[in-house]
Design brief:
Heat Shock Protein 90; six-stranded antiparallel beta sheet; five-stranded antiparallel beta sheet; 12 helices; rod-shaped; transmembrane helix; transferase; kinase; phosphoprotein
Length: 551
């Protein structure tokens, strides 16, 4: 017996396992798709972060370019050529028309000759960022300084400086602005929630910042990150330095500053996180609903199977069971099959009891017949060998009847078949037998008794009658006669073509069978006519003593 591949478990456990086997791979596949989507989103996020940094760099670049343009306009004013500081001061206020930008006029040593932040004539010191001045003078082009603390304004500022060549008014002209004013341009409205942006100068200090960051102008940006921002633009990501965050940067074209944006990945992927939460909550909810539905289904199936098992148990005890009605079509079919089987089993058992009873009855009859036959043969034979042959011959004929009855399950055998079976071994050819009459089905008792009679008639014919000569012939014919008491059958055995027949001087077992036993078995009358031309044997009996009625 093959061992089962799966452990023994209830139908509910298997149904739940089936539900999990279906649901979990689907959820796992969806989760895999979301992981892939998350990776794609991160790639998109990196690209968006760089684009946001580049957008900020362009905004700052426009501001610096505007300041450079202002410087170029102011540097060409004739007042500087005439070293007319008062007129230049008035002209500058007209050009700027703003309170956020201020113009500085500086000597090579950084001494301020003019600062539009303060009234003309107020004593001014040196610029607070001599290094930026010297760098612009050395390069000969416009440069933006690092952020620094203004000595006069006492706030964080930055300068855009333009060197003046051969000007009697001074060595350089600069536009200065408070870092807080520049911070107004560092907006984070287009960035994901929780993200920050900053402008970092050449030395790594924050010029302006926006968003939730705690960085302020003049603060040093992360020293672990800045050395790695070497490309013109790009993305920086490091779980140790920026856990669960990403940073994008872009060099401000033509200037020494960088635009930087950064923030948590989760907030940038808020929609994806919402999808994850929906998947988790929805998946768990659907899985619970599926398990509840499977549990209810399992209870229904278990109840159905228990009903079928109860039917089978009752059937095993020999009861006739009626089919149960369930919600499972296949179970109903099994229930009907069990009900039919229980009925068939009951019928079979009843039939078996009947057959056993009949077998006992027939066995008693056969034993009585065999006993009577042996006693009679014993009285009529003078040696053991003769007795043995006579008994064996009669038992063989009886065995033929029993064999054919067994093949038909003792339900009866046709008359013609009984005749053929018992005479087949006696005939020298088929021409020696004629059978006339409408065939019908014999009762089991009639099969045995008529078979014994035919065997005796054939045995006698072989010894003394028509079958002892090749030209001899047997004719068996039966007809119906309707009388007042019912339908009678007239069964005739007649012989022709054999030796001259003489009546026997003594009667033996054969005579007893063909006359006494035949008449008694069929409740009829037997006539035997020993005509010289051939024996004629006639049985007249009620047809119902021979015929088996069909049901």
């Amino acid at each position: 017996m093959r061992k089962p591949h799966f452990p023994k478990a209830s139908i509910g456990a298997y149904l739940i396992a089936i539900a999990l086997a279906i649901a979990l791979p689907i959820l796992a596949f969806v989760a895999l798709l979301l992981v892939q989507l998350e990776n794609n989103e991160r790639d998109v996020l990196k690209g968006d972060t760089v684009q946001d940094a580049q957008a900020l760099s362009r905004v700052i670049d426009r501001q610096l370019q505007d300041m450079a343009t202002t410087l170029r306009l102011l540097s060409s004013s004739p007042e500087l050529e005439r070293n007319d500081i008062a007129t230049f001061f008035a002209r500058t206020e007209t050009v700027l028309r703003t309170d956020s930008l201020f113009v500085l006029l500086m000597e090579k040593d950084g001494q301020l000759r003019l600062n539009t932040r303060w009234p003309l004539g107020k004593p001014l010191g040196k610029t607070g960022n001599i290094a930026a001045l010297q760098s612009a003078l050395n390069s000969g082009r416009i440069e933006a300084s690092d952020v620094f603390m203004g000595p006069n304004a006492r706030r964080w500022v930055y300068n855009v400086t333009l060197p003046l060549e051969h000007s009697p008014a001074g060595a350089a002209l600069a536009v200065t602005q408070d870092a807080d004013e520049l911070a107004k341009l560092v907006t984070t409205q287009a960035l994901p929630p929780g993200w920050s942006a900053a402008v970092v100068d050449k030395s790594g200090h924050v010029v302006a910042a926006g968003g939730p960051t705690t960085l302020a102008p003049g603060d040093t940006f992360n020293k672990d990150i800045l050395p790695k921002l070497i490309a013109s633009s790009g993305v920086y990501q490091d779980e140790k330095t920026l856990p669960n965050a990403v940073l994008g940067y872009a060099q401000i074209s033509g200037w020494s500053w960088k635009a930087v944006v950064w923030g948590p990945i989760a907030s940038a992927q808020q929609s994806l996180m919402s999808t994850w939460r929906f998947l988790i909550y929805g998946g768990v909810t659907l899985l619970l609903i599926a398990l509840i539905a499977v549990y209810a289904l399992a209870r229904q199936v278990r109840t159905t199977i228990q009903s079928i098992a109860d039917m089978a148990d009752r059937m095993g005890r020999g009861e006739i069971v009626s089919p149960v009605d369930t919600s499972v079509i296949e179970a109903n079919q099994v229930a009907i099959a069990l009900s039919n089987a229980s009925f068939d089993r009951s019928v079979t058992e009843d039939r078996l009891h009947f057959v056993m009873h009949e077998l006992v009855h027939r066995t008693k009859n056969l034993l009585a017949l065999a006993q009577a036959m042996t006693r009679q043969l014993a009285r009529q034979t003078d040696s053991v060998d003769t007795f043995q042959r006579a008994v064996a011959d009669r038992l063989e004929g009886l065995a033929r009847s029993i064999e054919v009855l067994t093949s038909e399950q003792w339900s009866g055998v046709s008359l013609r078949r009984v005749i053929d079976i018992h005479l087949a071994t006696f005939l020298q050819g088929p021409q020696q037998l004629d059978v006339l009459g409408n065939d019908f089905l014999l009762k089991p008792e009639a099969v045995q008794n008529l078979g014994l009679i035919l065997h005796e008639l054939a045995t006698n014919s072989v010894k003394y009658g028509a079958l002892s000569a090749p030209e001899g012939k047997i004719t068996i014919e039966w007809t119906n006669e309707v009388t007042e008491t019912g339908t009678m059958i007239r069964f005739v055995w007649s012989e022709t073509g054999g030796p001259t027949v003489k009546p026997p001087s003594v009667t033996g077992f054969g005579t007893t069978v063909t006359k006494t036993h035949a008449a008694a078995s069929f409740s009829g009358h037997v006539e035997v006519n020993f005509r010289p031309a051939g024996l004629v044997w006639i049985l007249t009996a009620p047809r119902n003593m021979m015929e088996r009625q069909r049901t």
